Amino acid sequence: MDPVLKVKGLGKAFKDKKVISDITFEVHKGEIMAILGPNGAGKSTSIRNIMGIMYPDEGEISFLGEQVKHVPRAKIGYLPEERGLYKSVKVIDLLLYFADLKDYPLKKARERALDLLKKLGLEGKDKSSIEELSKGMAQKVQFIASIIHEPELLILDEPFSGLDPVSQELFKKEIKQLANNGTAILLSSHQMNIVEELCDRLFMIHRGQKVIYGSLDEVKRKFANFKCTIIGENELSVLERLNNVERVEQTGDRSTLFLTKDVQINDWIRQLSAELDIQELTIDRISLHEIFIDIASDRLNGKEFLNA
Ligand SMILES: Nc1ncnc2c1ncn2[C@@H]1O[C@H](COP(=O)(O)OP(=O)(O)OP(=O)(O)O)[C@@H](O)[C@H]1O
Questions:
Q1: Predicted confidence band at 299 (pLDDT cuts at 50, 70, 90)?
Q2: Where is the ABC transporter domain (predicted)?
């Protein structure tokens, strides 16, 4: 089956400065794909080029197997990074207006709007005007506006920013439900814990270029080295001298040892000196959050990056 969205070799420069180059990825029916990267990496520029808010200098965009100038707007939902809705309009009128723009039947849209308002904790707010809502509430309405017409592709640029934890859970549940029903979702977020929980695959961009592209499992297996956390009174310099230790972070009696990629955990544990003070010891894979920081701070070199 053709992917819902395919971008190939996307490049864009502002004046003489190339801000994205060779951006290539796919988003499939029913999957949640994360687009990640440090501030200024080029995520929103990639999304804006896909949306036709601006046009790429190079590259191709395909929607359901057909090459297009930009994705067909009636079939997609988009929550932009910049939030903003008409202030004096009633919530329900605004949602019906968006549905109408996408040629979605109004009767069905009204039912969906009331149902989604209820699911996102805004029951009874349908007749309020946008200016009467809090920022988080308005964001929920904007999210509903982006999915009211049951889009085949949904692009969410930082959907969780500014939401309280309860609202984040509601959004997560709804996003998962949409994917289960077959919507292809491209999601940009800085919250790595949410990405780990929600996304099937991820595309990470740094300085306008791909650094990782793969499933979360693949990324974890190939990228996430081990770390060992030891609770005990140990000298930093002693821990730093242990085999296969790349670096150590120490706070009080808690030391986190980041291990080299080639480490054999079995052998490594056996060779730990009896002189170390070990009250507790845990070994885990480093998290997506730590992978992200390693990349953003250029700790990992290009050779390790995954290919599509
Ligand atoms: N209209 C523009 N004119 C000139 N430069 C731009 C324009 N839009 C974006 N840029 C530059 O392109 C680069 C990528 O910006 P972009 O907004 O795509 O990053 P981002 O990954 O979405 O970042 P953030 O996480 O901060 O939202 C930045 O260096 C930014 O300054």
A1: low
A2: 5-232
- Atom 18 in ligand 1: which residue has the minimum CA distance? 42
Model pTM?
Answer: 0.85
The answer to whether residue 257 scores a pLDDT higher than 60 is yes
- Please state the ipTM of this predicted complex: 0.96
- 3.40.1370.10, 3.30.70.260, 3.90.320.10, 3.20.20.370: CATH of 225-285: 3.30.70.260
Dihedral class, residue 52 (left if φ above 0, else alpha if ψ from -120 to 50, else beta):
left
Q: Rg of the chain over CA atoms, in angstroms?
A: 23
Owner of token pair 């930082």: 158
Distance 211 CA to ligand 1 centre (A): 17
Tokens of 258: 């980041």
- Token pair 């046009």 in the structure block, residue: 55
pLDDT tens-digit readout, 99-130: 999 999 999 999 999 999 999 999 988 998 98
Within 6 Å (CB) of ligand 1, which residues are found? 14, 19, 37, 39-45, 81
